[in-house]
Amino acid sequence: MIYLDNSATTLKKPDSVIQAVMDALNHIGNPDRGVHEASLESSQLLFKTRQLLCEFFNGEQSSQIVFTSGATESLNLVINGLHEKGDHVITTMMEHNSVLRPLYRLEAQQIIELTILPVDEKGCISYKGLEEAIQLNTKSLIISHGSNVTGNSVNLEKIGKIAAKNDVIFIVDSAQSAGTLPIDIQKQQIDILCFTGHKGLFGPQGTGGLYVNPMISLKPLKVGGSGIATFSKTHPTTMPTALEAGTLNGHGIAGLKAGIEFILNKTLQSIHQHEMSLVQLFYEEVCQIDGVTVYGDFTTKARCPIVSLTIGEEDSSEISDRLASDYGIATRSGGHCAPLIHEALGTKEQSVVRFSFSYFNTEEEVLAAIQALKEIAQ
């Protein structure tokens, strides 16, 4: 199988990630629940991974790294734990349902006012329009670093300056960009960063987390066992325990740690360069195929390794099925859990076929996908 669905989850993991998970399954116990070797080894693993993530994203304090099951849980924690009645929230049409649905729910409960910024025909936002949308009661701005449909990325540093100038909390969904595009929490003035482990970070599914500015307090999404303050009726307030409850996915986090170490060893720049070379080859060739329409802004290389397209008026699920059944090529069609961007692009009914590339894909695989599209288009 030629796997080109890496924006859903990276199938090919570094060998070191697989080995790390296997080692953890054999050695680590429950963190902070005992003084025996297995528990201490687990606690040490979590501590080192928090430090590694904090350094990777250039946060201020590793204790502000909170582990979750992925970006969806992180975003739900932040959106529900930050906002109160009367708050105004700004987001965009490029967002995933992991952002939209929690916001819609708070809006329906009349807790927040919501502004959704439009995008242009290429799926890009207006930075001027973003600043103009800020009101006196604007509490936060929530935006995806990279679109999971077009691959377009936003300028985090520019947005961070706008948010800081207006005293608005800047929340970034990095599900598609972490491990592919550079993220610098302090330089880009990001207040809260939500990330997932199973995509560009090469970790297992069920891993992820968030970084929270030390000046920001969030209400926990879950409360329960913490390993400390057992006889207190309330959940601990010390970070990161304040936002973590129950047994963490230590086995998965071991794999996440190995994934980040792999990226640091290869360098983010070399990984992105390889992925974008595949994108460029694919993009330039498929644009020449009669009937193919490609969506997104390809004028910059500061983007996620995604190319989404349609062929004539054919239903994109049919194209994706043909690619899988006749050519052994895995892609993704449908709404991609991002309904508003499809409305903006005019692809709500037809949807698009998304090709998403990873460091482990090859030029030969890309050429095979190009040839398959030529034959299907004919």
TrEMBL record:
A single BP term in Gene Ontology: cysteine metabolic process
Keywords from the UniProt entry: Pyridoxal phosphate, Transferase
Domain Aminotransferase class V: 2-366
The protein's Enzyme Commission number: 2.8.1.7
GO molecular function: cysteine desulfurase activity; pyridoxal phosphate binding
Reported cofactor(s): pyridoxal 5'-phosphate
Gene3D superfamilies tied to this protein: Aspartate Aminotransferase, domain 1, Type I PLP-dependent aspartate aminotransferase-like (Major domain)
Catalytic activity as recorded in UniProt: (sulfur carrier)-H + L-cysteine = (sulfur carrier)-SH + L-alanine
Family according to the record: Belongs to the class-V pyridoxal-phosphate-dependent aminotransferase family. Csd subfamily.
PANTHER family (UniProt xref): CYSTEINE DESULFURASE, ISOPENICILLIN N EPIMERASE
Protein name: cysteine desulfurase
Organism for this UniProt entry: Vagococcus elongatus
Lineage: Bacteria, Bacillati, Bacillota, Bacilli, Lactobacillales
